[in-house]
Design goal:
With about 290 residues, the chain is of the alpha/beta class. The chain folds into 2 domains: about 5-160, Rossmann fold; about 160-285, 2-Layer Sandwich (Hypothetical Protein Tm841, Chain: A,domain 3), CATH 3.30.1180.10. Helix content is about 40%, strand content about 25%. It has 11 helices and 13 strands. The chain is globular. The chain starts with a strand and ends in a 5-residue tail after the last strand.
């Protein structure tokens, strides 16, 4: 059995079943909606994704917050007390300050537990892209790699996790400063759909514009064709903002065109969904490069 615990954030957007099968610890992140704070548990105990997106469609807005160092210390310390090391795979520093909180927490705890290791890695990833990186890290752990070697594998491979998104409603990107008000207005009128990705610095960046919903979904698949590592053994993750049928469309095309069998689909949680909005579909895969 490994002598270290892999810990990550609920921004991985992976299901409770997958979390349990991998043996990872997922820290729920916080969001506020309608003046009330909620924790984004993977099993959706405080608010379901369906309820969350219904509220967004009705005009409510959500505000998210990073995990602070004090809370991370409370999560890390029991494993250190039990003689285990900790590998924390943190949400992209390009989108949140959670990684820096992890660095601070580790620094404080190392003074108290000098014989233990706490390794904090910036995944430079988001949503199920972060989840896919955690999935691969667990595979390396299960091969018997040490905590140092798994951490190094993640650092060496994180920029091979491609993230391709499309959104159905430009207004959520406008609120987050990803597109201008004019671009959101004219894009909506002209049925223009942006295709975005997470770049090598972990930022969400618009890459292209297409006309129509199906064309935007097909664009995600085209990016896999350009850069994805081919082979039926590839594992892909697909996340969605309460639009399961569109996610299934992408999954079916990936299976038909490339023979991929191992496909995981899960909703985008509130912390990511607050910024991307309902109707978002995202495809994640191991690639030659993120571009």
């Amino acid at each position: 059995m490994p002598d270290f615990q892999i810990i990550t954030d609920s921004t991985t957007d992976i299901s409770r079943d997958l979390i349990d099968s991998m043996g990872v610890v997922v820290i729920p992140m916080e969001f506020t909606m309608g003046g009330k704070s909620y924790l984004n548990y993977p099993e959706e105990t405080e608010m379901t994704s369906r309820e969350f997106y219904s509220k967004l469609r009705a005009g409510e807005q959500a505000v998210t917050s990073q995990i602070n160092a004090s809370r991370l210390k409370l999560v890390f310390e029991p494993y250190l007390k039990d003689g285990e090391d900790v590998l924390y795979l943190a949400f992209s520093s390009g989108l949140s300050g959670t990684y820096q909180s992890g660095v601070l927490a580790a620094s404080d705890l190392m003074e108290k537990y000098p014989n233990r290791k706490i390794i904090v890695v910036d995944t430079l990833a988001a949503s199920m892209g972060e989840g896919l990186l955690v999935y691969f890290a667990c595979q390396q752990r299960d091969k018997g790699l040490s905590v140092d070697d798994v951490a190094q594998w993640v650092e060496d491979n994180r920029l091979h996790i491609a993230h391709w998104f499309t959104v159905d409603d430009l207004n959520h990107l406008k609120r987050g400063g990803r597109v201008s008000g004019a671009a959101a207005f004219f894009g909506t009128v002209l049925n223009i759909k942006p295709v975005l990705h997470v770049d090598n610095d972990g930022h969400l960046i618009p890459k292209e514009k297409v006309r129509g919903r199906q064309s935007s979904l097909d664009a995600l698949i085209s990016h896999y064709e350009k850069t994805g590592v081919k082979g039926s053994e590839q594992t892909i993750f697909i996340s969605h903002g309460d639009c399961l049928e569109d996610a299934r469309y992408v999954a079916s095309k990936m299976h038909e065109r490339f023979g991929i069998e191992k496909i995981f689909i899960n909703p985008i949680g509130p912390v990511i969904g607050a910024h991307s909005g309902p109707g978002t579909v995202a495809l994640f895969f191991y690639a030659d490069s993120r571009d």
